[in-house]
Write a sequence for this structure.
């Protein structure tokens, strides 16, 4: 059964939290799809995944790069899953509707910035819609040390 988790960023920016989540997923043997709401945001995430650490990078690609099915991490604004990902990450209010039934994900995570009123409102709306649709949801909040604590 697919798990849907909401991750409430508090003191850490997405560009710092996202690589850690992706690394954990890849260590489990899961491929990952990251869905953002705009191409501009994908550009920023693309750069962040190449440069987030002096000692490491996360190999990834987008539709324009080709060979999507070979990418361990695929960045998109669409509902596609060309790399057979088991984890789908939604960032910056990317809309979940119409995406969940298309692929067999192990886990879906919606990351949102709790300091951004628009993202907070969008996360609440998506929580309500997914709950009404019968999905089991879990809410995690980031503490001051950057660790995730299950809240609901």
């Amino acid at each position: 059964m697919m798990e849907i988790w909401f991750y409430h960023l508090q003191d850490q920016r997405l560009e710092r939290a996202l690589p850690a989540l992706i690394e954990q997923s890849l260590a489990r043997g899961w491929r990952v799809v990251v869905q953002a709401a705009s191409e501009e945001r994908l550009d920023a995430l693309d750069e962040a995944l190449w440069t987030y650490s002096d000692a490491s990078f996360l190999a990834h690609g987008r539709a324009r790069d080709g060979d999507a099915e070979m990418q361990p991490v695929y960045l998109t604004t669409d509902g596609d899953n060309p790399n057979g990902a088991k984890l789908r990450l939604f960032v910056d209010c990317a809309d979940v509707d119409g995406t969940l039934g298309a692929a067999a994900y192990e886990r879906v995570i919606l990351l949102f910035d709790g300091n951004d009123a628009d993202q907070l409102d969008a996360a609440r709306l998506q929580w309500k819609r997914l709950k009404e649709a019968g999905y089991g949801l879990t809410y995690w909040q980031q503490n001051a040390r950057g660790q995730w604590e299950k809240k609901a």
About this structure: The first helix runs from residue 14 to 27. Residues 3-150 form a domain with the Rossmann fold fold (CATH 3.40.50.10110). DSSP finds three helices and seven strands in the chain.
